[in-house]
Design brief:
By secondary structure, this protein is an alpha/beta fold. Helices cover 36% and strands 12% of the residues. An eight-stranded mixed sheet has the order 3-4-6-8-10-12-13-14, with no helix packed on it. The protein has a two-stranded antiparallel sheet with strand order 1-2. A two-stranded parallel ribbon has the order 5-7.
Length: 385
């Protein structure tokens, strides 16, 4: 084998190199000798053509919708034109679902249907989320208000055992809190009952009793006299029967209202002498005792009530006599109602009630007119007659 020297490598080229330089096409294959143009380029051109057509269609639809909307907003198109434009508008197209490929991957038919229904479901889903959000906000507001009310009201007031027993006896007599009664020790569970922080009953208002088809009916039980801390006693919505027991032990009373239109309570005016013991009384209502008898002059006992400001004595239809003159010394009265009392004339002594603001008594027009013309000027504070 001939020896190749360095000089020969750097010298003239070998025979093989000379052949390649002389005839390159014969030794090297052509770069595009095996390239199939139709198979490689044609599908890409078709896809680009389809995308261009799709873009033109979308642009045309958008332009059509924008022109119609602009025409309606500008007022240039009337109702008929708007209806015609709406009828001529092409139906909305779900372009992304109409293609077999989505983001470079093939979309199965079921997924394509879900994609087509997605825009239609979005408004309903948004409305459902809005309703859920509003419902949640309402619940939060109700919780916050309940917490604020509970914080303002403080801890629940529990009735003392004696007070609870008295209320149970009242319910047995009147069925005011239901046929089965109410054994709860919480004062708030007894509608119409007001309690002090110590659990003592200070108010009993029949107008706030639970609503029912008929008013509570029955005799006044003696247990009511054990509620010594009562300040407000209103039984005008209780159809009392029998007699009224003495309430002289309720010395804390400031408001007393007895009388239900149509009740059948019996008794005498003289039997109401216990009223003189209620020295703190400020408001007194006695009405609709059609079965009561006696002389109206026995009401002079009311002059012992130095704190009395409002007095109503009405509908004692079987009572006789006249209102006692001693009432003229009750100068603290601001309201006096003696209406519906038989044989009661417009009394001249009312002019001595210098603080009177409201007056209502029975009198004929001539007698009333005489007072108005002669003595009304003496009642400086009178506002209602």
């Amino acid at each position: 084998m001939p020896r190749i020297t360095p000089s020969s490598r750097r010298g003239t080229p070998s025979a093989t190199r000379r052949r390649r330089i002389a005839a390159p096409s014969a030794a090297w294959p052509a770069p595009f000798a095996n390239f199939n143009f139709a198979a490689a380029v044609a599908p890409r051109l078709l896809l680009l053509t389809a995308l261009a057509a799709l873009a033109l269609t979308v642009a045309a639809d958008c332009a059509f919708s924008a022109s119609n909307r602009l025409a309606v907003l500008s007022g240039s198109a009337g109702p008929a034109a708007a209806a015609a434009a709406a009828a001529a508008a092409p139906p909305p197209r779900l372009y992304h679902a109409s293609l077999p490929l989505h983001h470079g991957r093939r979309v199965p038919p079921k997924q394509r249907l879900r994609m087509a229904a997605a825009p239609l479901a979005r408004p309903a889903a948004a409305a459902a989320r809005a309703r859920a959000r509003r419902s949640l906000l309402k619940r939060v507001d109700a919780t916050v208000q309940a917490a604020a009310s509970a914080a303002a009201a403080g801890p629940a007031v529990l009735l003392e055992a004696s007070q609870l027993s008295a209320l149970v006896q009242l319910n047995k007599a009147w069925r005011a809190w239901g046929k089965n009664g109410n054994a709860s020790t919480a004062c708030a569970a007894w509608k119409g009952v007001t309690c002090s922080p110590k659990g003592l009953v200070v108010g009993l208002d029949s107008n706030e009793f639970p609503q029912s088809d008929s008013s509570p009916t029955g005799a006044m039980p003696a247990a009511i006299t054990t509620l010594a801390t009562l300040q407000n006693l209103d039984l005008t919505n209780v159809d009392l029967v029998g007699t009224i027991p003495s309430l002289a032990s309720l010395t804390s009373l400031t408001h007393l209202a007895l009388g239900y239109d149509g009740n059948t309570v019996t008794g005498t005016l003289e039997g109401l002498a216990w009223l003189s013991s209620l020295s703190n009384l400020q408001t007194l209502f006695l009405g609709y005792f059609a079965e009561f008898t006696g002389d109206l002059s026995s009401l002079h006992i009311l002059t012992h009530l130095k704190s009395l400001q409002s007095l109503t004595v009405t509908s004692f239809t079987n009572a006789t006599g006249e209102i006692p003159l001693q009432i003229r010394y009750m100068t603290g009265l601001t309201a006096l109602d003696l209406s519906l009392l038989r044989a009661v004339e417009f009394p001249d002594w009312v002019t001595h009630l210098s603080n009177l603001q409201s007056l209502n008594v029975n009198a004929d027009d001539e007698r009333r007119q005489g007072l108005l013309s002669d003595d009304i000027s003496l009642l400086k504070t009178l506002t209602s007659l």
